[in-house]
């Protein structure tokens, strides 16, 4: 019985039907994902259609989600299983089939590489002004609440609470300090405005918060939009509350309080990841073609300084020429402030080499296979002519 | 019998002669050496080009043509531009603005009629209103504009280009450049010189010895320098040409043009030779010529199926060869002129897709010798060149590359490979359409030809899968090199992926035996829909990194094309019309 089921299952997962159905589903997903980008933005559409097991549909004014389509992750997995199994089952290990073997191994690698990217790639950015030295990168899509001890003018102690923790709305103890932060309300995105006459009083009791009206807003995913991450928090130390504060990326000036002679500042900002080395922007160049505003070139001349390894060197980062260092790649992405600010895209992807390898494999495999087919067909035509 | 053998050769030689004839320079117009003036290099849009290119591209943008007839005389773009710059009172009466939109016509107080072309003078009293409407529409995203808004913005942009050209060498309505030279340093002059420097569309005065190769000056800038005491040596010559043209002094004009060219050639010979080559390229119009050669070959091959195949099939092949030769020559000429790989924008991708399909079709014809290779090659070549002609009306087709695209290595590898993949997919689709038409129209199609058509389509799909896959992955690698992600699900990337997936589906369906002849052919036609959407459709979405300009007008053409392909698919799957009547009888 079990053997029978096993045989049938094996038949299904090695079938051409599954290949074709999966490829067709993938086509449909890619098409839908492309159309959805107009409204959701690239990242949003990719999360809905490609990086999901199931595509959900939420009818308007109803609070339920209905599964309507297999997602990219599921289809990708089906393809990998089908590819692997049918390659093993169907392809005889002969020279005639060598090309197809190489192609399919390359394809499995390619899909695995995309899974690795989805799982491990870290996208961050570094905004750096001419003359400035920066030793951290920022994650533009996730925020953090930074509690900064600014007592010592020589250096700051930074404690940060990531967005995911804020969203759970509990009490978080700050290690190494007597402080704890109680998160009373969290908004992934909110609109802030001045509190009017008839408005409900704010939850905040300290800082600028009492004068501000907060209205929650749906989170955005389009590339050009940003979330105004906002929270009401209550610092607690030694059993005493320091009032409820409004913190938001939309508020400019940092707010702060003092406890036992130490000054703390509260700030919501893009999540920072500190690097064991520092980068100084020496020069930013932005050339245009003469008489036009068509950009010809952007480049950042930076100085890389790593006290750990004693490295001190200058690097020129420009279009199509990133700096690869310490498992990260630094790309020239954007600029601003009258060409004095350079924005580098910093990407860490441990699997970045996989597509290169798989591309080479598939190319070689297809060449071998179609070469063999072509030779056979030419031979056949010749023998037909002679016969 | 002898004549029958010679005829294809004769047709080929005649066609080639006709192309070479177009390369000959034209004579003087009204005694003026307009050709000499149009060969002068200037700096426009970031690159050095002959005035001829400025003239042709501007007239294409404004009127949609490179020349026009008015009052019994054919005005070539060069003559029109010269008039516009030096005799604006004449040019302003030429009907150069094409206006189709009924609401825009209403705005300028016109009714829709058979006349679609209007002069600057006619538009004059309504320009303020046009500008007001256009400025109201400009902040709206191009995809979200109404038809009227798009049309009025488009008209305004054309009027603005016209206005800039009109005020590039000298301010319209002033006595001219010679007068400016006499009144240097006077109080009113400096304002005029500043205005000139402000609106100039191009820079006619080459860099002085020792200056950077980019340091071209507009007339206004040169006049300002002259105010301060440094007279650019070419400026008095330009003034002389201007005055001579306005007063009808042919000798004075021709002499000044010669002197100007000699002056530039002495210091910057590379600019002059580049400009001369580009003028030759413009005059030859290899892609336009190629288009007509393909049409001729296509008609001959159709006739050959009904009448005298032994003469007409080789004749069609000869015409196709000449077409391919001209097309290839044009591509190489363009590559050398621009110093870039063949595909740099949407326009050149159309030229290259056609070229790839033509070369593949030529090879198929050599292999199978049944006229089908010629038919699909010419049809694909003609169709893509006509698309290119339309895309080419949007400005300089050799525009400078934006920084992110400025990489000859990736343009040569990723872009060329993926474009060959498009060529292959379209060609397979064209073969399948040929198969469909034959199935319904030809009485008792012989099985041998049908088999060869299927094997042609199959081979081409394999070819297309290879190139589209490699091209897509190379695109990913370029993206990884330039902004740090291999695959970003950008619409254009997705489009390329769709082509790869579809070709893979076709091949697997065939290997598994799910489809045979008819199914394979219908799937190949669907490949045309996928490829057209991937190629142009993503430009309509207006998102992503690859969305470089495409008009909404294009949308309807695209939908029309896809509808015809769907119809062909349907016909392909239906039993033969002839077969049905046969059985009834």
Describe the structure.
Chain A is of the alpha+beta class and 387 residues long. Chain A has three domains: 2-120 and 353-386, no CATH class; 124-133 and 275-348, no CATH class; 139-273, no CATH class. In chain A, 33% of the residues lie in helices and 38% in strands. Chain A has six helices and 19 strands. Chain A has helices spanning 2-13, 16-50, 72-90, 98-120, 163-167, 354-386; strands spanning 54-57, 66-70, 122-129, 133-149, 157-162, 171-173, 179-187, 190-194, 212-216, 230-237, 240-241, 245-248, 255-259, 262-288, 295-306, 311-318, 323-325, 328-336, 341-348. In chain A, strand 10 and strand 11 (240-241) form a beta hairpin. In chain A, helix 4 (98-120) packs antiparallel against helix 6. With 585 residues, chain B is mainly alpha-helical. Helix content of chain B is 70%, strand content 4%. In chain B, the strands form three sheets. A two-stranded antiparallel sheet of chain B has the order 1-2. In chain B, strand 1 and strand 2 (47-50) form a beta hairpin.
What is the 3D form of chain B? elongated
Radius of gyration of chain A: 28 Å
Could you give the count of β-strands of chain B?
Answer: 6
Q: How many helices of chain B in DSSP terms?
A: 25
Largest sheet of chain B: 2 strands, antiparallel
Oligomeric state of the chains?
Answer: heterodimer
Key features?
heterodimer; A: 387 residues; alpha+beta; 3 domains; B: 585 residues; mainly alpha; two-stranded antiparallel sheet; two-stranded antiparallel ribbon; 4% strand; disordered C terminus
């Amino acid at each position: 019985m079990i053997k029978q089921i096993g045989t049938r299952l094996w038949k299904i997962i090695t079938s051409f039907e599954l290949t074709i159905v999966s490829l067709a589903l993938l086509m449909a997903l890619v098409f839908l994902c492309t159309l959805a980008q107009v409204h959701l933005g690239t990242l949003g559409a990719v999360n809905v259609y490609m990086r999901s097991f199931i595509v959900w549909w939420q009818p308007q004014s109803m609070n339920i989600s209905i599964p309507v389509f297999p997602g990219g992750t599921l289809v990708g997995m089906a393809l990998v299983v089908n590819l692997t199994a049918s390659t093993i089952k169907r392809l005889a290990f002969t020279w005639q089939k060598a090309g197809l073997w190489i192609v399919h191994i390359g394809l499995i690698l390619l899909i695995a590489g995309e899974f690795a990217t989805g799982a491990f790639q870290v996208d961050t950015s570094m905004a750096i002004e001419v003359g400035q030295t920066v030793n951290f990168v920022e994650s533009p899509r996730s925020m953090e609440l930074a509690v900064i001890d600014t007592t010592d003018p020589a250096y700051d102690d930074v404690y940060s609470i990531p967005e995911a923790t804020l969203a759970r709305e509990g009490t978080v103890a700050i290690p190494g300090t007597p402080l704890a932060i109680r998160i009373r309300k969290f908004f992934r995105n909110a609109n802030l405005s001045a509190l009017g006459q008839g408005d409900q009083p704010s939850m905040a009791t300290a800082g600028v918060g009492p004068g501000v009206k907060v209205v929650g807003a749906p989170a955005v995913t389009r590339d050009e939009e940003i979330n105004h991450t906002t929270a009401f928090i209550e610092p607690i130390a030694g059993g005493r509350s320091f009032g409820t504060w409004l913190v938001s990326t939309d508020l400019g000036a940092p707010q702060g309080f003092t406890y036992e002679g130490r000054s703390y500042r509260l700030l919501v900002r893009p999540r920072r990841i500190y690097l064991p080395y520092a980068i100084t922007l020496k020069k930013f160049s932005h050339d245009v073609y003469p008489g036009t505003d068509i950009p010809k070139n952007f480049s950042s001349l930076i100085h890389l300084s790593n006290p750990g390894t004693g490295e001190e060197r200058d690097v020129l980062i420009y279009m199509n020429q990133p700096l690869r260092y310490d498992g990260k790649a630094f790309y020239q992405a954007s600029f601003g402030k009258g060409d004095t600010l350079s924005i580098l895209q910093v990407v860490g992807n441990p699997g970045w080499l996989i597509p290169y390898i798989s591309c080479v494999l598939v190319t070689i495999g297809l060449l071998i296979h179609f070469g063999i087919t072509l030779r056979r067909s030419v031979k056949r035509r010749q023998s037909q002519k002679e016969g | 019998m002898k004549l029958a053998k010679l005829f294809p050769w004769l047709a080929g030689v005649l066609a080639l002669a006709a192309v070479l004839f177009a390369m000959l320079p034209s004579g003087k117009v009204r005694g003026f050496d307009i050709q000499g003036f149009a060969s002068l290099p200037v700096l426009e849009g970031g690159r050095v080009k002959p005035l001829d290119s400025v003239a042709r591209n501007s007239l294409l943008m404004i009127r949609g043509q490179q020349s026009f007839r008015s009052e019994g005389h054919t005005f070539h773009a060069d003559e029109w531009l010269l008039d516009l710059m030096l005799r604006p009172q004449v040019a302003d009466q030429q009907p150069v603005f094409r206006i189709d939109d009924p609401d825009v016509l209403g705005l300028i107080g016109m009714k829709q009629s058979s006349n679609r072309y209007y002069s600057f003078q006619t538009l004059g009293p309504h320009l303020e209103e046009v500008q007001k409407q256009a400025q109201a529409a400009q902040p709206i995203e191009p995809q979200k504009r109404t038809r009227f808004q798009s049309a009025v913005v488009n008209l305004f942009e054309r009027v603005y280009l016209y206005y800039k050209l009109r005020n590039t060498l000298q301010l319209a309505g002033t006595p001219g450049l010679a007068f400016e030279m006499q009144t240097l340093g006077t109080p009113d002059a400096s304002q005029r010189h500043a205005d000139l420097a402000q609106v100039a569309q191009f820079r006619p005065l080459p860099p002085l010895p020792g200056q950077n190769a980019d340091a071209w000056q507009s007339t206004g800038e040169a006049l300002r320098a002259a105010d301060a005491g440094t007279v650019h040596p070419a400026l008095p010559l330009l003034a002389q040409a201007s005055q001579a043209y306005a007063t009808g002094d042919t000798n004075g004009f021709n002499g000044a043009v010669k002197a100007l060219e000699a002056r530039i050639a002495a210091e910057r010979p590379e600019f002059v030779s580049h400009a001369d080559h580009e003028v030759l390229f413009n005059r030859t119009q290899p892609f336009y010529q190629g288009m007509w050669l393909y049409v001729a070959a296509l008609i001959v091959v159709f006739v050959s199926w009904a009448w005298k195949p032994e003469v007409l099939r080789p004749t069609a092949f000869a015409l196709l060869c000449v077409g391919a030769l001209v097309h290839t020559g044009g591509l190489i000429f363009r590559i050398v002129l621009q110093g870039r790989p063949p595909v740099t924008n949407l326009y050149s991708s159309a030229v290259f897709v056609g070229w790839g399909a033509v070369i593949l079709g030529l090879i198929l014809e050599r292999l199978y010798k049944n006229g089908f290779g010629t038919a699909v090659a010419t049809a694909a070549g003609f169709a893509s060149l006509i698309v290119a002609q339309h895309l080419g009306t949007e400005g300089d087709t050799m525009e400078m590359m934006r920084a992110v695209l400025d990489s000859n290595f990736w343009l040569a590898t990723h872009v060329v490979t993926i474009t060959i993949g498009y060529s292959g997919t379209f060609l397979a689709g064209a073969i399948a359409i040929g198969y469909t038409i034959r199935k319904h129209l030809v009485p008792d199609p012989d099985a041998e030809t049908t088999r060869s058509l299927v094997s042609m389509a199959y081979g081409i799909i394999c070819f297309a899968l290879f190139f589209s896959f490699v091209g897509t992955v190379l695109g990913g690698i370029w993206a990884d090199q330039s902004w740090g992600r291999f695959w970003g699900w950008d619409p254009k990337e997705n489009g390329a992926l769709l082509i790869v997936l579809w070709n893979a589906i076709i091949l697997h369906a065939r290997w598994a035996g799910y489809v045979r002849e008819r199914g394979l052919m219908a799937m190949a036609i669907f490949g045309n829909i996928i490829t057209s959407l991937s190629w142009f459709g993503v430009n309509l979405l207006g998102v992503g990194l690859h969305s470089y300009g495409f008009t909404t007008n294009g949308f309807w053409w695209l939908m029309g094309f896809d509808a015809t392909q769907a119809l062909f698919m349907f016909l392909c799957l239906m039993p033969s019309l002839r077969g049905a009547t046969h059985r009834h009888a």
